[in-house]
Write a structure and sequence with these properties.
heterodimer, A: 114 residues, mainly beta, seven-stranded mixed sheet, B: 111 residues, five-stranded antiparallel sheet
Chain lengths: 114, 111
């Protein structure tokens, strides 16, 4: 089984709809992240959480919210989806040690907002 | 100006060629430098990691960091079709785990 899973893998929605993307991990990591990926822009950080009680905004948090339901679960919500939120969304996890450089990414959710 | 700049390509080379991928950055506080590889319809995976300046070699891959020039490189020797992917540079400063990514370079190795 994959260490970081994301659901759904693909989603089509309409402008104004609320949508939730879910992420689960079995790596036992405290730190979790949500990114979006757009052609030509690379990966940009939306929100990150260093533990269940710690939630922080990334560089592009407007229009998004998150919930850290448990150490293993981190959800991203679009309260009122708009077309420019069409993108590939990735969840990632990492450990807490200074030398734990690897962020482990999920397979991504492809979101289309019409 | 973006903190990390990476030529998005696409880059297409014949099998067996030496590939050079590069990123420049503006924040001199960056200390940790990474290269991620992303296959189509997959999440990125860590390929190489370097702390501060210097070189690191892993099989056919070599990562170089030149902090004086704010420039990092990834070299792929004897490139294979299986190396075809998007390569993203990423970096962070000490004490933080927020990564700043480059735009990614799409690489194709032609048999």
């Amino acid at each position: 089984d994959a260490d970081v899973t994301q659901t759904p893998r693909n989603r089509i929605t309409k402008t104004g709809k609320r949508i939730m993307l879910e992420c689960s991990q079995t790596k036992g990591h405290d730190r979790m992240y949500w990114y979006r990926q757009d052609p030509g822009l690379g990966l940009r950080l939306i929100y990150y959480s260093f533990d269940v009680k710690d939630i922080n905004k990334g560089e592009i948090s407007d229009g998004y919210s998150v919930s850290r339901q448990a150490q293993a679960k981190f959800s991203l919500s679009l309260e009122s989806a708009i077309p420019n939120q069409t993108a590939l969304y990735f969840c990632a996890t990492s450990g807490v040690r200074e030398d734990e450089e690897t962020q482990y990414f999920g397979p991504g959710t492809r979101l289309l907002v019409l | 100006q973006k903190e990390v700049e990476q030529d998005p390509g696409p880059l297409s080379v014949p099998e067996g060629a030496i590939v050079s991928l590069n990123c420049t950055y503006s924040n001199s506080a960056f200390q940790y430098f990474m290269w991620y590889r992303q296959y189509s319809r997959k999440g990125p995976e860590l390929l190489m990691y370097t702390y501060s300046s210097g070189n690191k070699e892993d099989g056919r891959f070599t990562a170089q960091v030149d902090k004086s020039s704010k420039y990092i490189s990834l070299f792929i020797r004897d490139s294979q079709p299986s190396d075809s992917a998007t390569y993203l540079c990423a970096m962070r400063w000490g004490g933080a785990q927020k990564l700043v990514f480059g735009q990614g370079t799409r690489l194709t190795i032609n048999p």
